[in-house]
Prior knowledge:
The structure holds two protein chains of two kinds.
Chain A: H1 2-20, H2 31-34, E1 39-52, E2 55-66, E3 78-81, E4 85-95, E5 101-105, E6 111-114, E7 120-123, E8 126-129, E9 139-149, E10 166-177, E11 184-189, E12 196-200, E13 203-211, H3 223-226, E14 229-234, E15 236-239, E16 242-245, H4 249-261, H5 269-279, H6 285-299, E17 301-302, E18 304-306, H7 317-323, E19 325-326, H8 328-341, E20 347-351, E21 371-378, E22 381-385, H9 398-401, E23 405-410, E24 413-418, E25 428-437, E26 443-451, H10 453-459, H11 467-477, E27 484-494, E28 499-508, E29 513-515, E30 518-522, E31 543-545, E32 549-558, E33 563-564, E34 572-576, E35 579-587, E36 592-601, E37 604-606, H12 611-625, E38 628-633
Parallel strand pairs in A: 1-10, 7-18, 17-19, 25-32
Antiparallel strand pairs in A: 1-2, 2-9, 3-8, 4-5, 4-9, 6-8, 10-13, 11-14, 12-13, 15-16, 20-21, 20-23, 21-22, 23-24, 25-26, 26-28, 27-28, 29-30, 30-38, 31-37, 32-36, 33-38, 34-35, 35-36
Helix pairs in contact in A: 6-8, 7-8
Chain B: H1 2-18, H2 29-32, H3 38-42, E1 45-58, E2 65-77, E3 87-95, E4 98-113, E5 116-121, E6 127-133, E7 136-142, E8 151-160, E9 168-169, E10 176-186, E11 189-196, E12 204-219, E13 225-248, E14 266-275, E15 281-283, H4 288-304, H5 310-319, H6 323-337, E16 339-340, H7 352-358, E17 360-361, H8 363-376, E18 381-386, E19 404-411, E20 414-418, E21 438-442, E22 448-452, E23 459-469, E24 475-483, H9 485-495, H10 500-507, E25 515-522, E26 530-538, E27 542-545, E28 548-551, E29 573-574, E30 579-588, E31 593-597, E32 602-605, E33 611-621, E34 624-633, E35 637-638, H11 643-658, E36 661-665
Parallel strand pairs in B: 1-10, 16-17, 23-30
Antiparallel strand pairs in B: 1-2, 2-8, 3-4, 3-7, 4-5, 4-8, 6-7, 9-14, 10-13, 11-14, 12-13, 14-15, 18-19, 18-21, 19-20, 21-22, 23-24, 24-26, 25-26, 27-28, 28-36, 29-35, 30-34, 31-36, 32-33, 33-34
Helix pairs in contact in B: 4-8, 5-6, 6-8
Amino acid sequence: MRLFLYCCILLQPMLFFGQEGLKYQSILIDETLKKNAHSILRNERLEVTIPNQRTIEFDNYRVVTVFNKKGNSDVDAYAHYDKETRIKKMEATIYDKFGKEIKKYKKSDFKDVSAVSGGTLFSDSRVKYLEYTPTSYPYTVEYHYTTTSTNTAFIPGWVPNGSYNASTEKSSYTINYNQDVLALKYKVINSSDQITIKESPGQISVSIENYEALVPEAYSPGFENISPKILFALDKFHLAGVDGDAKDWESFGMWINNYLLSGTQEVPEETKMEVLRLVEGETDTVEKARKIYEYVQEKTRYISVQVGIGGWKPMLASEVDALGYGDCKALTNYTKSLLDVAEIPSYYTVLYAGKEKKDIQPDFTSMQGNHAILSIPNDDDYIWLECTSQEIPFGFIGDFTDDRDVVIITPEGGKIVHTDVYDYKENTQDLKGSYTITLEGSIEAQVEMNSKGIQYDDRYLVENQIEKDQKDHYYDFWDYVNNMEIQSIAVENDKNEIVLTEKVAFKADNYASFAGDEMLVSLNAFNRSTYVPKRYRNRKYGVRIDRGFIDTDSVSVTIPKEYSLPESIENIHVESEFGTYDVEYTLGEDNTISYIRKYVFLDGEFPKEKYSDFRKFLKKIARYDSQKIVLTKIE
Amino acid sequence: MKYYCLGISLLFCIVTIKAQDFKLGKLKKEHFNIELTEEQSEAPAVYLSKNRRTHFEYKDNLDGWLLYTTVHNVIKINNPDGFSYGTKKIRLYNEGRGEEIIKKVEAYSYNIKGGEVERLKIEKENIIERGVNRNLKEMSIVLPLVKVGTIIEYAYTIESSYWAIDDVVLQEDIPVREAFAKIEIPQFFDYNTFEKGYLSVKPKRYTEQRNENFSREQKNPFGGRTNRTLFANMKYEEAVTEYKLENIAAIQEEEFVNNINNYRASIIYELAAVEFSIGNREGRAKTWDEVSKFINTRLKDKITSANFLDEVTIELKEKSNSYWDRVYNTYAYIQKEMTWDKNENIYRSQNLKKAFKEKKGSAFEVNLLLVSLLKKMGLNAVPVMASTKGYGVPIYPTVSGFDYVLAAVVYNDEWLLLDATGKNLYPGLLPERIMNWEGRLIKENGTSQAISLFSKKYAENKSMMIATIDSNGSISGNCRQRYSNNEGLYMRDTFVGLTPNQQQAVFKDFVDVETVENIKFSLEDLSKPVSITFAFKTDKYIEIIDDKLYISPQLFLEKSQNPFKKQDRKLPIDFRFPRAVENSITLSIPEGYVIESIPGAIDVQLPDGLGSYKIVFKQLSETSIQLLSSFKMNITLVEATAYNDIKNFYAEIVAKEKEKVVLVKK
């Protein structure tokens, strides 16, 4: 039986090459699939065989037609390998647009490199990939590889459209598993009517045909939330020499405790004493934790090193203690070890990090996540600690890990909880400033900004930048102000209250413009919202705003005495379900004018029909923000 | 083995004597108190000392001369941005018989703890090695306990069987308090040295006598070693050069710079000749003539032996009548047939026949094929050695300073440069990557001449617009734009190969208006400028205040931002190519309004004919206004001394273009 199977695998590609070769004429493809597509997945056939908990075999056959250079990255002809995973077979053939064969690649023709990018210093993992420079478009790549691995912890998910602007003619994914000893589960995310799922004992098979390319849209929920995907996992898996259990999050958490974390948390006596000295006399648990966290921040730095059990086991806490560096797992685990010394309970936490929020699937237990942080239970809530940054304040996580489901590893096992949400009311910027306009239309300005929440997160790193980079930051921040000459910058970072205070003074020539005897000035010099997203003929996805904010500005403007102010300026009030916008003008006596602005931008999700209203709202604000007043020369 | 140990200890001895202040592994409290300048203490990190020695050792008659480079650096970390200096990466190259080996690594981190210096030595397992690819290894020295205020120190020696001396880099991305480098070259080697950057380095040069005992191994009949060892003695002279500099400012990135490394203070070494016995000199590069001779001998065979092109030659000859036909048809043939591999393979050996068969190759292969074919067509064509912007500038005679080849053919008694690596190029039009100072034209007799790679032609962008303003504050009209030379190339590279749908979507980002329609491209004929016509509608460029309309008359063509923001500048400004922008705009005003004011004309000239700007506004009739503007930047590269003039020039343009046309209700 075994032998027979092996022969089949050998023969299959040849059969395909013979019969289907001419099918890869790119010129005959259906127009609807071509629409918005840089590439088309013509035919993908993934076959996975799992005879037991410690063996998984992949057979991946894939044909991609590429229409232009932007589609080159969709070819995806590569395979990873490491100590546990071996590439058995790998070959590729390139066809021109008429389906005529141009070039063939054997396994040894693939490039073989270390599978880490700049950030990681070391990893066991390597990758073989196809390096092909297309000589003309469209072209088609037929690609086939098989691998065998002992790591059954990661069964790749099925994502028929790998990226935006890529459509799928046909893709199927079949998993054959030994049902006598294994339980396979799956979960469909962003389901589509076009997906067919067939289940039979020991086999699951999913497929899709003629699925059109997805197109990116501004303020849409993001690729992860619109592209169909199916996750697969085993209840009992194997990872780098260790058997594991993922029946539910509780047992999976126990496994992480027992096999990844336990035995890694011992720290030297000397450090223990130091930690105890540090918290001596402090009664408040949160304050104790803060001191320990700051101690870790001061002592360590982040370095990515992927070794040991598939890059999943943290480096020993004693090693981090001696060397002062580690990756997210190591630094999180080390912080936990020190908190343990002070008898403060904390939980190692696994999650997906990134600005685009992505949840750990609460109802689907498997190896998930790409980052680790620490949580400290605090009454009914948690304090979240990002352990890889030396500069982020205690208990602040920003948009990197906010508002998402994560799994915390407690002594009783894993548990799904949700991280802190930064509500629009918390993301504030309070601005106070003044400027004087000269006869030539230049301005001299002073401004102070206080930022909190996500707005703090966006900018707190400015504090430690060298002067040149700070200046560049403000040139960029006020890019609509030309000829700016920055005179002073003072940045204060209150890490306890988590407030950033920036004080900047600058001059700018030709700020105002002239029309005959009149001078035109945009009163809003410090905080303009200028971005208006594109119009879409057929908006496909809803509107999603992940993080709202409130900005308040209070600015006093002095105009040259040779000019007079208009008699009155009408205040502005805009109200919509996306937020509110108010500007109030007060004309002073001594050629001054006060400009007070409040902009509330709400977070939330809205149906696609609302997109045009949303766009109009932003457009109105962009317009009001650059609105000019006319100063008239006194005769 | 024994011998090499001796070499190393000897070498450390010399290093420590020269850098008495920093003994490896023995930093003290006073090193933490070293006084730093303001720049040095504010930077993320600072090199307290940067030390290097390069010298040769004769190992034995099998391995011959080996090159040793020892580096000893001491860095203080000032803030978390400097933590990246806590990891030192070293790349080691190997190919064929040669290789680079790292010989000895020592590294320490020093912190002040309880008022005392705490020293930590790096353990072997924290020196991480990984294979980047077949020919490249990367060693990472990850220093322990690096915090704000830490001093780190590392030293290593690289043994190399290649005789390529690494550039002596004096200027870094962070300040250097003290740099010292000593390069010792035995009399048998002749290196050219060249200085880059704006620091004036005055090296100390002297000669030293060496007297070395070395071992000789007898070869066995297969060329391998026997265990019989003989000893011999050798006397020779060494040319020693010492570079010493203090308080070197960090190099700073600026906008409009082609490659920052062209300005980084450093000394480049290139092997010019080896002469192991008197009179037996093997030259590579000393003068441009030697360089061209060397290159010419390597190219000549490749060019003349391309018999596989004979068939094509006959075909092309048949369809070419005029001289220009022959040039153009040959060019177009290679351009169509060959695809450039984006210089992925410049380090492998070049093979014209294979490249031609696979229809794909390096710039070297593609353009040498072009030279071969042009010659077969009976034209006077030669290769031009050049280097891309990413690679740097070959300011000195060099063999290895080039990573690109162009073709040149005589046309109208001048050399016309050709590059067939891009599908949207044309004879005489070069892609931006190679518009990098000068190339070296290698003539058939082995002599050479410099040829400018900067464009002499203006990259033009001409727009003609006719638009109508309505009383609700919206403007609609038609626009026709022409992009020529490098501007045209940019547009072709952007739009050729996209579907009409994609073209429309991308073009919408080029014009800042709400509605663009009827977009028509003409991209095909490469001998002509790109032409794009479209209709638009927008209400972005008008403000209604009381009973007046304030119009930004250039609409989306307005230059609304000064690209130069910084107060001063150190490096030359690279405009990439000469430019000309011309706009002609006619606006019709709505009924019920009269023109209250229109901006005045200006005519601004940059000194020394660098550039000019002119704009005039004309009232054509009661109901229409015309605007003509013309911007010209006449050169490619401008010295930093002209920075203020240029910044003010742009400021004046931006201010002028912001001025409004005012209409008032009757």
